[in-house]
Each structure stands twice: as structure tokens, then as C-alpha cells.
Design brief:
Layout (H helix, E strand, L loop, with lengths): L1 H11 L30 H5 L27 H6 L6 E2 L2 E2 L2 H12 L6 H9 L4 H5 L3 E4 L4 H7 L3 H12 L4 E2 L3 E3 L11 H8 L3 E3 L10 E9 L3 H12 L4 E9 L1
Parallel strand pairs: 1-8, 2-8, 3-4, 3-7, 7-8
Antiparallel strand pairs: 5-6
Helix pairs in contact: 4-5, 5-8
Bound molecules: zinc ion.
Length: 248
Amino acid sequence: MEDRLKVSTTLRTCPLWDLPFPKESFISGKPVPENSPYRYLTQDDARQIILAKPPHCHTCGHPFWGDAAEDQQCPHCVELKPVFAEGRTGALMKGPARDMIIDLKYHNGFHVIPELVAMAAQCPGYLDFLDGGILVPVPLHWFRFAGRGYNQSQKLALALAERANGCRVKSILRRTRYTSTQTKLQRKHRVKNMEGAFQVKRNHGLSPHDRIILIDDVFTTGSTLNSCAKALLQKGFQHIDVATLCHG
Ligand SMILES: [Zn+2]
């Protein structure tokens, strides 16, 4: 499955691939109808995506099943004590949403970027939340960037800025040290792992009153986003929000 996905991903990164052949779902291989909101997902695939529609956690965007207060936090965020103000996410990191993130992160699957943005845009209020914000991608350490060749969060930020009103993308953060892969660490170690891992670049040209929206592909424990937000707070930024494409 993984090898097949790699091959199809390579082919679909070429725009010419779309011209002479019908679009197919990268999950099932079935043709995608022309009127679908997605380019590479059928309606059956899309139904497997668990969108993060309201009501949701005020700071990470995880959906609540039932009624919730407007500023209610999930138990995880209560424990995290985020220094950022508000957050949104697109969908739970399951099924096709998870497949797309893995494709983007590890297989150069740039064709899923518009799919992930289209997915998030189906959550009421997601794009409105971004309006007028300065989108700041979570940076990779230079060593990881050299290995991957791109920062998926920056690519997502650029695609989101095209869909939302009045947004700009500014890469004003730098990762100052190489950190272990977060997915292999327990929660308390993830927080420790990310402490002081980010700095704000000099001469960024922004005002402390600008609304910053940190952009990352996935909200996992929130420790990476919280560490970025702390670095921004230390430099005087007063309004920091976050937006991710998936939550898992
Ligand atoms: Zn939360």
C-alpha cells in the first residue's frame, strides 16, 4: 500500500498528470466526480473524515459531542495551559485525513495540500477565523528541513492564505535546536523536549499588535505550538492564535 501510494504521489505532483486522465481517489482508486469539493477524494472517502465542526475546544479546536460553552476547553488543554488565545483545527487525525497528512509529510504529497485546505474550509468558521491574520508556520530545524526539502507547515500556510481574506504568511520563527521526534515521547517529555526550542527572528517587520496565527499540520499535544507562542510572547506579541489541519 505504501509503495503504491509513493508511486501515485510522485505522478500526481506533476500538473500534466491531470490533463489526459480522469482524477481518481488516492484512497480507493475510484473516479472522483467533477462536482466534488475534493480533487482526489470521492464522497465515500469524504464521509470517513471527522470534521472539527463546532462546538469545539476553544484553544485546540477538538470537537465536542454535545453542548459546550463558547470558551470551553477540552481536558487536555486545561492541563496544557496554553499561552496562545484561541485555536481551530480541520479534522481528527483519522482515516483519509491521516493518510493525507502522512502523504504530505513523508512522501512529498503536495497534491493533498488543496485537499487539506478544502477539508478545513468545510468546518464552519475555520477560514473566517484566519481573516486578517499573519500566518506564521511552525519551523523545522535546518537539519530536518535539509532532509525533507520543504516545510509542510509553510506550504499549508501559503495555501490557507490564498483561501482566507487579508492573510499574509511570515516565517518569523527559527527552531534553535534539533528535537527528538515528538511522536515517540510521552506527554510530559514532549513538553520538556520543546522548551526553549524556538526563537523569533530579528528584523521581522511586524508590530506587537499584529494578530499572529501559528500554523502547523497537526495538533498533537500542543507543546510545540505552545513553545512557539512563548517565544512570540517574550518578544512582545500580544495576540497569538493557532490553526492546524488535523488533530490527533
Ligand atoms: Zn483542547
